[in-house]
Structure formats: structure tokens, C-alpha cells
Design a protein that fits this description.
By secondary structure, the protein is of the alpha+beta class. Helices cover about 65% and strands about 15% of the residues. The chain starts with 6 loop residues before the first helix and ends with a helix.
Length: about 550
């Protein structure tokens, strides 16, 4: 089928295939590079956003940790102030001869003032060692004055029971209760820790009943020291609902509530959980399982960390709530889908732009291909038009009854011009050859006619010879028939023998003459056959030349 196509169509078809192949290659490379660039932008933007979110989470965690530290520091300042004030009041017992009852009243009033001036505190308390305040606990046994317990020890506790201030005496049972709590610390750690260590202590979060309601709280307690001897412990109770409220507020601030904030004590007790308020006061291992155990391990490293948790990103910032205390931690978790929302938006924007560019590229490519094919068709038509003209001239020569005097006319000096000139030179050589062949054919025809005449004459001579030989045979037969007559007459026989001998000699001469005539005729026929063979060879050459001319004419068409 391809052989039947015109040269113009072949040029357009092959050029179009090449053009479309190049366009497809360029467009494919463009699309590949565009996709690779988009992927690089996507990866780079995702990494940048991830780093930005991690830095933001770390900054938020540090901010909330500082807020936590500030809240505890404010409570510690209250404890420090009370410590100094209570030691001063105790000193007045001897310098101004205050009565023990007045002293206990003044100390209890100082506790009340601190309690009322710090409404964020859940409680303010002072537990003295036995006879540690005035040495007269026995005189106040049986709760005779506010702040004295059943054994007369000064152990005053101001709390907000029922929404208003209430003063209670801490019972000896509570002071001596060393049963471990959730964190593993004894119940009376608020008293025993500073007494035994001589340092300020921050208790692990614990649950306690206040006004019939169980609250999760912690305490800051500090020893009262006189001459390097602990004579009592003063402290404040801090409700952790303020930390929980801070965690909930922080969650609202984190990506429209998508984040989650935890506050962990040094032993892993949940002091704040924005997404799980019912877990407050529980160990993080029990509340969260394996992730809680991992959190505790991260806290023990005492280093700020930002971790990839698979489905979320976690920022952990450890901070000691008060100086010298074991670090607590603020933990912020953010789901990756929230973190990657901006990256997904950017990716969708890039994909949309890529699709638009692809459509525009394909449209421009299609227009360019159509324009290219049109130009190729015009160029191919311009290139094949002279070929068609030459083909038409060749067709005219081929159909012009063998008129070899015609010549092709083409003025351009290109490949087709060389073809035309070569064909004209071929005709210049072919024309005399055809003329010579024509003359040879004429001579061959004459020789053939002459040979035909010779053959006819030879045939006639052979017929005559045949008749003469027949006559000789008849005479011989007659001689045989009359052999008996020879015996009868010798004279007649001799005479007849001489006549027969003469006749035989004549017949031999006739046969020899006929033989020479036949040999001469055979020589003439052999010469004629050579000329005929030469003519046949020339005819074959003429046929080959005509076949070449016909092939050239067909190719040019």
C-alpha cells in the first residue's frame, strides 16, 4: 500500500511522523520535568511547613511551660512570704512576751490573710512540730483554739470549702498517714518531704476531697527552720483545674482546636489534659498505654524534643515548676493532617496549574503540528510539481510512437535537473543505436527473403532430382524385367548394357550436381541464420532499452 502513495504524500506522511515524534518527545520531557519540579516543590514545602510547625509547637510548649512555671512561682512566693512572716511572729513570743494563745491567734490570722489575698490558692496551711510553735501544745489539746488539733499541735489549714474560707485543724492521723498515693508518694508527703529533706517540695498531683468534691491538686511546702532545725512546715495547695483550663485554652489556640496539650508531673501523673479531663490525676502509662510510657521516657531525658509520632507531631518541653524540683513537662500533639493542610493546598494549587499548563501545551502543540503539516504539504507540493512536469513529458515521449527526437526541458540545476540532463544524454546515445538497429532489421529482412528464394529453388531442384531418380529406378526395373531378353540376344544385351551404363553415369552426375546445390543452399541458410541471430540479439537490446524507458516513466509518475 505504501508503494502506491504519491511522493508528496510520502514526504508529508514521513515528515509528519517525525514532527509528531519530536513534539511528543518535547511535550513528554516537559511533562516529566514539570511533574518532577512539582514533586520537589511539594517535598520542599512539606519539609519547610513541617519544620515551621515543629518550631511553632516547640515555641508554644515553651510558652505554656513558662506560664506553668510562673503560676508555681507565684504560689512559691506566697510560701516564702509566709515562712518569713511566721518565723518573725514566733520570734515575738520571747521578745515582746506574747502569750501562747495570742501567738497562735496571730499566726492563724497571718495564714488567713495570705489565703484571702490569693484567691487562686485552694488552701494555705501550717503544721508545726510537736511543741514547735510555743512549747505548750498540751495546753491547747482538744482543739481549744483555732488551728490546734486534738493533741494541741498547731496544724491550721485554711481552705475554700463550700466556696468560702474555712479553717480546720489537721488531725494527727493525717499528719502521720504514710500510705502511698497514685504517684507512689506517701499521703503525708506534704509534711514529711520538707521535714526530712529540709528543702522546698512540690508534691506530685493527687486527688483529695474538698467540700464533698474530689479535686486533683498539688502542694508546695517549705520547712520552717530555726538554728538549722525544722520546727514546722508551711505550704499552699494548688488546684490543678487551673492547669486544665490552661490546657483547654491552649488547645483552642492551636490550629482551631486541632491540637492536644498535656501537662505531666515528674513521675508521669497527668496534671492537665485538654482532650481527656477524666484522666487527670492518673498515671500517664495507665491513661494512655504504650504512648504514655514513651512520653515518660521522653520526659526523663530532660531535653526539649520534637518527635514524629507517625500520625502526629509531638513537642515536649520539660520545665522545673519551682527551683530545685524535678521537671514537669508540657506536651503538645498535632495531627499531621492539620500540619499538612497548607502543603496539600499548595500541592492542589500546583496540580491545578500543571493541568492548565498541560492543556495549553497540548493545544499549542496541536496547532503547531497542524501548521507544520500544512507547511510540509505546501513544501512537498512545491518539490513534486517539477517531478510531475518531467513525468508528464516522459509520458508524452513514451506514448509518442517511439519519437526519440523529443527532449525533456527543465531549467533548474538541482537533482531533477541532473536527471533530465542524464535522460537527454541517454536519448542522444539511444537514437543512433535505434537507427542502426532499424537498418540491421531491414538488412536481415532482405537476407531472409534471399534465403527464402534459395530454399525455394533448392526445393524445386530436389523435386526434379527426385523425378529423375524415380525414372532411373523405373529403368532399372525394366532392365530387370527384360533380363531374359538379354540372354536371347547378346548383341541386344551388350547394346542395352552400354545404354544402362551411360544412363547410370548420367544419374551419378545429376546426383553430384544436386549434392553441390544442396551444400551451397545449406551454406546460404547458415549465413542467413547468423544474421537472424544477430537481429534477435539486437531486438533483445532494444526491448531492454524500451523497458528502462518504461520503468523511468512509471517511477516519475
Amino acid at each position: 500500500m505504501f508503494e502506491r502513495l504519491t511522493i508528496r504524500l510520502k514526504i508529508v506522511l514521513l515528515s509528519g511522523i517525525c514532527l509528531l515524534s519530536v513534539i511528543a518527545l518535547v511535550v513528554g520531557m516537559n511533562l516529566y520535568q514539570s511533574a518532577a519540579t512539582n514533586q520537589q516543590v511539594k517535598d520542599a514545602s512539606s519539609q519547610m511547613l513541617t519544620r515551621g510547625v515543629q518550631n511553632l509547637l516547640q515555641a508554644k510548649a515553651a510558652e505554656k511551660a513558662q506560664l506553668l512555671q510562673r503560676n508555681f512561682s507565684e504560689s512559691l512566693q506566697v510560701v516564702n512570704g509566709l515562712n518569713a512572716q511566721l518565723l518573725q511572729l514566733r520570734g515575738l513570743l520571747h521578745s515582746q512576751s506574747l502569750s501562747p494563745e495570742t501567738l497562735r491567734h496571730e499566726v492563724n490570722q497571718s495564714l488567713r490573710n495570705a489565703f484571702e489575698h490569693n484567691p487562686t490558692l485552694l488552701g494555705v496551711w501550717l503544721v508545726m512540730e510537736a511543741n514547735g510553735l510555743d512549747g505548750r501544745d498540751a495546753e491547747f489539746a482538744g482543739n481549744r483554739t483555732p488551728g490546734s488539733n486534738e493533741q494541741g499541735r498547731f496544724a491550721s489549714y485554711w481552705n475554700r470549702s463550700g466556696g468560702s474560707g474555712q479553717n480546720l485543724a489537721v488531725a494527727e492521723q493525717d499528719i502521720n498517714n504514710d500510705a502511698p498515693g497514685i504517684s507512689g508518694a506517701p499521703y503525708n508527703a506534704f509534711y514529711s518531704c520538707p521535714k526530712n529533706t529540709g528543702k522546698t517540695c512540690l508534691l506530685e498531683p493527687y486527688a483529695d476531697a474538698v467540700s464533698g468534691q474530689t479535686l486533683v491538686m498539688t502542694s508546695i511546702s517549705q520547712p520552717l527552720r530555726v538554728d538549722d532545725q525544722v520546727i514546722g512546715v508551711v505550704g499552699v495547695d494548688i488546684a490543678l483545674d487551673t492547669l486544665q483550663a490552661a490546657a483547654v485554652d491552649a488547645r483552642r489556640e492551636l490550629f482551631d482546636g486541632a491540637g492536644n496539650m498535656l501537662i505531666l508531673s515528674s513521675s508521669g501523673v497527668l496534671a492537665g489534659a485538654s482532650g481527656a479531663p477524666d484522666k487527670l490525676g492518673q498515671k500517664v502509662q495507665g491513661a494512655l498505654g504504650a504512648p504514655g510510657e514513651a512520653l515518660l521516657q521522653q520526659l526523663r531525658s530532660n531535653q526539649p524534643q520534637t518527635l514524629d509520632q507517625g500520625e502526629s507531631i509531638r513537642a515536649l518541653f520539660p520545665v522545673p515548676p519551682i527551683a530545685g524540683a524535678s521537671p514537669w513537662a508540657v506536651v503538645i500533639d498535632l495531627p499531621k493532617q492539620v500540619q499538612q493542610a497548607d502543603a496539600l493546598s499548595l500541592q492542589q494549587l500546583l496540580e491545578s496549574a500543571q493541568h492548565d499548563n498541560l492543556f495549553k501545551t497540548l493545544l499549542v502543540t496541536a496547532l503547531a503540528a497542524a501548521l507544520g503539516l500544512l507547511l510540509m504539504s505546501l513544501c512537498a507540493g512545491s518539490a513534486t510539481r517539477p517531478i510531475k512536469q518531467v513525468a508528464a513529458m516522459l509520458q508524452g515521449i513514451a506514448s509518442g510512437d517511439g519519437d526519440l527526437t523529443q527532449r525533456l526541458s527543465y531549467s533548474r540545476r538541482d537533482e531533477l535537473g541532473e536527471l533530465v540532463q542524464g535522460f537527454n544524454r541517454f536519448l542522444d546515445k539511444l537514437q543512433p543505436l535505434i537507427r542502426d538497429i532499424k537498418l540491421s532489421i531491414t538488412e536481415a529482412r532482405g537476407t531472409a527473403d534471399q534465403s527464402s528464394n534459395i530454399a525455394r529453388l533448392t526445393s524445386q531442384g530436389m523435386q526434379t532430382q527426385f523425378r529423375e531418380i524415380d525414372q532411373v529406378a523405373t529403368a532399372a526395373h525394366q532392365m530387370s524385367a527384360t533380363a531374359q531378353d538379354v540372354a536371347q540376344s547378346a548383341a541386344s544385351a551388350a547394346q542395352a548394357a552400354r545404354g544402362a551404363d551411360q544412363s547410370t553415369q548420367d544419374g551419378l552426375q545429376i546426383i553430384a550436381h544436386s549434392t553441390r546445390a544442396i551444400e551451397h543452399l545449406a551454406a546460404d541458410v547458415g549465413q542467413s541464420m547468423g544474421q537472424v541471430q544477430t537481429l534477435a540479439a539486437n531486438s533483445v537490446q532494444i526491448g531492454q532499452v524500451l523497458e528502462v524507458i518504461r520503468s523511468i516513466a512509471e517511477q516519475t509518475n
